[in-house]
Design a protein that fits this description.
The complex is a heterodimer of chains A (131) and B (367). With 131 residues, chain A is mostly beta strands. Chain A has one helix and eleven strands. Classes of the chains: A mainly beta (131), B alpha/beta (367).
């Protein structure tokens, strides 16, 4: 699909120990929150703790536990969502390696093994964006 | 004797997924672009891809602007592709009543936007289609269930639907025939994409040989055979030291390139209300090297088909080195040439297309 565009170049931000990056859907159609089944955010090889991860779309912020039942808010193909987590990153001129892993359910493809899920990832190198 | 059909030329916005996703065109810009390129007059849209807030937040303001735009650029809405998201809840599949309501909302939007057909999907059973018939009647929208790889026109699930359609005898229940069910070769552009990922010529030759073997055997008629074929691609990749490519080989080799013979379409031809002109690329001779476009168009013409053919370019998944607009221009030229060779013509005029589509379909959409 469109995994090479998951991470939006130049959108790494960090503040008070929390770090965030904008992400795009690697799929051709919108999916609801309930189908966004998991993510990981890693900077320079260090992963944000799972329970600190938050997902922001349509100006609402969710934990991944809250997304499980969310069928009202949808991730549209043109929109960036924001993935953030507790992860101290040096706010300097250095290049950082950012990795995002995503697990999505595809709700109309039901296989012998249940609802199809896809796991996609992307890695890009960028400085902390200057605000 | 059946008189020769005059299929309506069209395109689905799905063909331009990569450009839309990259924000090179917004919805209005993309529609204007394909109108100016002459890719219509038929226009197909996937609701969940192109319409923000679909289906719950499509307000009258948006509907008015969409209809005005389509009228201004003189396109003809053919099919709104809707999705059967049975697995939208993490812990269970949708129940019957939820499913009917989920589909009703999407079909209602299709009617409001002026689409006479809603493309629905294979997970709808004959019982579900029967339950949706009153919805189709309420909105005047034809439900055209999509048949594509790994299914085909003579697959037992498709035949069961056909038999129920025959019993219900409603012109509002039919099929979308997707040419991905009847592919004749592994797409060369996908082989090129694997080459760019470092796959050896020896491995690619084995992939082609494996697929050609399945083509010779015919399409899988059970899920078991389908699974075995998927596994064979994974095994092949592993034996050649490229296990990272195995699932990709399997998904594409079994899910995109359906090896059914062309005559399987004849099983359901009277119920074909819409066609996805699925294809993967155009070669240096201006031909589609893996989808038998000429034979498919001839078959439709000779069987009196007067619905739309939406050119559905799917090579965008892997082909990021060629312009999709050039590729679609090339494929539609092949279609027009094939229709002429069959003694007919593709309809490219919007006024003619409206008239022919209205008589092809049973009743006007009530939006």
């Amino acid at each position: 699909m469109i995994a090479d565009r998951i991470i939006e170049q130049g959108t790494l931000t960090t503040r008070d120990g929390r770090t965030a990056v904008e992400v795009r859907i690697p799929w051709y159609r919108a999916l609801p929150g309930s189908c966004i089944a998991g993510a990981a955010l890693t900077v320079d090889g260090v992963a944000a703790p799972e329970d600190s991860l938050r997902w922001t779309m349509n100006n609402r912020t969710f934990s991944f536990e809250e997304l499980v039942d969310e069928t009202g808010e949808w991730w549209f193909p043109l929109d960036s969502a924001v993935l953030s987590g507790q992860l101290p990153v040096q706010d300097d001129q250095a290049e950082h390696e950012v990795r995002v892993d995503l697990k999505l359910y595809i709700p109309y493809i039901i296989t012998d093994h249940g609802v199809l899920h896809i796991e996609e990832h992307d890695t890009k190198t960028m400085k902390v964006a200057q605000r | 004797m059946t008189s020769l059909g005059t299929p309506i030329q069209g395109v689905t916005l799905y063909s331009f997924t990569r450009a839309f996703h990259a924000r090179q065109y917004d919805l209005d810009g993309l529609i204007r672009k394909l109108a100016s390129e002459g890719f219509g007059p038929g226009l197909e849209v996937i609701g969940f891809s192109s319409l923000r807030g679909f289906p719950d937040r499509i307000d009258d303001n948006f509907v008015g602007r969409f209809r005005d735009l389509v009228a201004e650029v003189d396109l003809v809405p053919t099919s709104l592709a809707v999705n059967v998201d049975t697995g939208i809840h993490r812990d269970r599949l949708m129940n019957h009543d939820e499913l009917v309501e989920y589909m009703r909302k999407q079909i209602e939007v299709a009617a409001r936007l002026g689409f006479p057909i809603a493309r629905v999907q294979i997970s709808l059973t004959p019982d579900a289609m029967e339950s949706l018939l009153p919805v189709a009647e309420k909105y005047g929208v034809t439900l055209a269930l999509e048949v594509h790889a790994d299914q085909h026109g003579a697959h037992e699930r498709v035949l069961a639907l056909r038999d129920r359609y025959e019993k219900l005898d409603s012109p509002l229940l039919g099929f979308t025939a997707d040419w991905g069910a009847t592919v004749a070769g592994f797409a060369p552009s996908l082989l090129e994409a694997y080459r760019r990922r470092g796959a050896s010529e020896d491995l690619l030759r084995q992939v082609v040989d494996l697929w050609n073997g399945f083509y010779a055997e015919g399409p899988p008629n059970t899920q078991k055979v389908h699974g075995e074929r998927f596994g064979a691609f994974i095994g092949l990749a592993a034996r050649n030291g490229r296990p990272d490519l195995g699932i990709d080989f399997g998904i594409n080799g079994t899910g995109l390139f359906g090896p059914a013979p062309l005559d399987t379409w004849l099983e359901i031809m009277p119920w074909v209300r819409h066609v996805h002109g699925k294809f993967f690329g155009i070669d240096e001779n201006g031909e589609e090297p893996s989808v038998p476009v000429r034979d498919l168009v001839r078959q439709l013409v000779e069987n009196g088909y007067n619905g739309a053919i939406s050119s559905e370019y799917e090579g965008w998944h892997w082909n990021n080195w060629q312009d999709p607009f050039d590729i679609i221009r090339g494929e539609q030229a092949v279609q027009r040439s094939a229709a002429a060779n069959a003694g007919s013509a593709m309809i490219t005029d919007a006024t003619d297309a409206r008239r022919i589509l209205n008589s092809h379909l049973a009743q006007p959409v009530r939006g």
